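Trying the structure run again after the queue cleared.
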Amino acid sequence: MLDHLERSEEALSSFEEAIQLDPRDEDISLAQARALVHLERFDEALAICEQAIQLVPTKPSVYKEKGDILTNQKRYADALPAYQKVVQLDPKDPFAHDQVGDTLSKLERFADAVKAYNQALRLSPDFTGAYSSKAHALEELGRYEEALAAYNKALQLSPKHFFLLFARARVLKKLLRYEEANADYDRAQLMAPDLLFAVCCLLASVDLKSVAEAKARLEAAGKAISNETIEAEIELMYKEKQVASLKSSPLFRPVCLLMQERQEWSGTAKQFKEILCHHFPDALATWYRAPRKFVDELKKIVPALREEGIAVGIPPDTTLVTLSKLALERLQHPV
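Done. Tokens:
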């Protein structure tokens, strides 16, 4: 009772007294180990488990407790043999197989994890959590059709589960089934546990128009089409549009023209404004008067200027405002 009330120090004293009365009661030992875990005294908790294992080496619960303590410390490689021993002693426990699968997944042994989840599901065909975990492992293996089938089964058992819907949508995207993915995101948004998760659904939803444009560009370039290449192409399209927007800046063309016959220019913010207004009075006649505004705008259009082979340095990164031509090799192989 004291342990449940989070009075772990008092509980620990009570368990020590109880152990003295009955040193072979593994349930008391395990309760004592859990109290030690609550106090983050993990080594002592593990020592208690080892003592319990010596006393009752055929009890699955003592190995499970040991595995749980090691998992709590993220010592998954050490936890795995303990959970495997639980399976060995109680092979008909689906939760034990599921726990082995979870630990194998933590160790990124996803193929072995799938086998453990399959065994859990043979023993308990309605084990929603095992279907979900199996689907994740299959997803990590790139076996998306199988992952989808596992998520479908999990959702048959738990149709209003937000995280299952969100995960299935992710797999549908991998399979280029974007309309279905969006339908799942829409459903998940309606049952999101809070506003943050609802926003995640909105952000993860697919812009079908951008997907169509990206696919057309990839096909025209003879490139492979996958969710990864489509996402990369959409990101490239976004950057291109950003740069195109930056090129509409009043400073973009004047700076490019200024650097046509120069390798480098440097000066103060005031000198930067003066040289531009001197060379391009018509373009900048009605623009800002403060030199700081010129430098602020220059900072915004750095990516667009870089595409034109012009590097920019702006205080405090450099002492003065600097413009310089990029070497051809750096343009062809940007860092």
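Strands lie at 264-267, 310-313, 321-325. Worth checking whether this holds up in the mutant runs.
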